[in-house]
Write a structure and sequence with these properties.
Helix content: under 10%
Order of helices and strands: EEEEEHEEEEEEHE
Number of strands: 12
Number of helices: 2
Radius of gyration: 17 Å
Largest sheet: 7 strands, mixed
Strand content: 25-35%
Strand order of the largest sheet: 6-8-5-4-2-3-7
Structural class: mainly beta
Shape: globular
Length: 192
């Protein structure tokens, strides 16, 4: 069995500009992110690392998650104003607050010396970020009709790392018309 839809991901670059911030949901002592639950905040911190080795201080419309086992595939980080706009216009989305943790490297360099200058990977300005996700789950091994704009495709309920935030084709077209930056929407068939 399988589910076909449009997988949605945040990306930390636009064209050749890799100067965008990333968020980490795992760190030393926290290897796995917890599955999002309604009205339960998501633990996160600004990441000092990036998949591409370059990280900057620009804040895009959507923010990529980076780190070992750091994926939260039910959704993504975005500005509160964008989250409110999406929830108002589409079905299948929820919004959770973020419980911010301070990255230890904000004040200390990798070598343990105190940081003199502000870290380049911190956001250039204060931003109001939330986490949007879909708790409308579609099991790819036993798919049911999809009745929402956004949904999460899952392989098994226990295997949290194999989840994908997806949307319908009509939703993809509406999202593209909204002209958001830092978002990647790609058709995919997830097989069971």
């Amino acid at each position: 069995m399988s589910v076909t839809g449009w997988v949605i991901n945040a990306k930390s670059f636009i064209d050749d500009d890799y100067g965008y911030v990333n968020i980490s949901t795992t760190w030393k002592g926290k290897d796995m992110p917890s599955k999002p639950k309604e009205n339960e905040s998501i633990e996160a911190m600004w990441s000092n690392e990036s998949l591409y080795g370059v990280i900057g201080s620009k804040v895009g419309d959507f923010i990529e998650t980076y780190g070992v086992n750091a994926s939260l595939q039910e959704g993504m980080f975005t500005h509160r104003s964008i989250a409110e706009q999406l929830v108002q216009n589409f079905s299948g989305l929820k919004v959770n607050e973020i419980q911010w943790r301070e990255n230890p490297l904000v004040h200390t360099l990798n070598n343990g010396k105190p940081r003199i200058k502000r870290a380049k990977w911190l956001p250039e300005k204060e931003v109001d970020i939330v986490y949007i996700y879909s708790d409308m789950y579609v099991d790819v091994c036993n798919p049911q009709p999809i009745n929402t704009d956004f949904f999460t495709a899952i392989r098994t309920k226990e295997d949290y790392q194999h989840n994908w935030l997806m949307c319908t084709q009509q939703t993809k077209e509406k999202l593209e018309a909204m002209k958001f930056k830092n978002i990647c929407i790609v058709e995919n068939t997830i097989k069971g």
